[in-house]
Amino acid sequence: MVSAAFTALAIAFLVRAVLRSDIGWDALTAVPIGTGLAVVVVFLAAVVVSGVLWARLLQRLTDAPFDVADATWAHVQSWLLKYVPGQVGTVAAKIVWGSQRGIARSRVATSFVYENLFHLLASFVVSLPTVLLLVPESRGRYGAVIALLCVAQLGVLALPRAVGPIVERRTGRTGLFLDVSTVLRQEALYLVPRLMNAAGFVLLAASVVKLGGVDDVLVFGAVYVLAGILGILAFMVPSGLGVREAVITALLSPRIGTADALTIAASARLYATATDVVLLFGYVGIGRRVQSAARNRSDVSHVGKNLELETRDQPQ
After folding, report:
1. pTM of the entire structure?
2. Largest alpha-carbon pair distance within the chain?
3. Which member of 22, 37, 134, 174 has the greatest number of CB atoms within 10 A?
4. Quick check: is 13 in a domain?
């Protein structure tokens, strides 16, 4: 209900802002093609880095062997399924991939939960303090948000001790939770794709409006990261469509005007979608072959293990 209400309000705000501005379709041509291509490359790299991080995270949770490149393409497939509302496609794609590689569903599901937690914390750590300090409309809530971030961090660190014994007792599975040092290390690593997305957005925004200095760079980058994670949390709409643009427009309008904020928000959506199209072609042309080869190797490995067990069981 909260997500649906927030989504409805965000889209209503965005529609109102568009109707009250004189922005037209020509606004989408405000970004030079060279800059747009650079932005696509940065956004593309951020998705790939996220995929590698997820593969390394899953390796921490399972002993089953798999190729990092294979898992990275599975992440790309999952990423492309974000257009299915409710994140059903994203988690289903990874679980199906894991089952084909002999990885327990519980391990893949746990990795998905941790991945989203790390993305969530990294996004808020990168964005909220900066937005609250440098966007006038957000000031006055800094202490409360920092306290909330601290509580969230403590909650993630305390998760294994709080619910670990219960989950392990009921499922009979162990090793489903990461230790504190691994959690902190993963959180630090997940800052990288967030910062890459922020850099891509700043590059795009700088081609539309003149950025005044470090303050503007920090604000624009932080606003995009915050808008991205709020778009993901609004899981009722595909890829946060409308919500992300509403957040960008609401936070940047007082700084650069509604028309320019809408232009930047629409351009960011355009080039993010272009990135997904490139990823789709990459997955169809390369990723599927990589995954097919990895699946064949996995099948051969399973057959070899079964033969070894049968030979071992035969009487001497």
Report:
1. 0.81
2. 86
3. 134
4. no
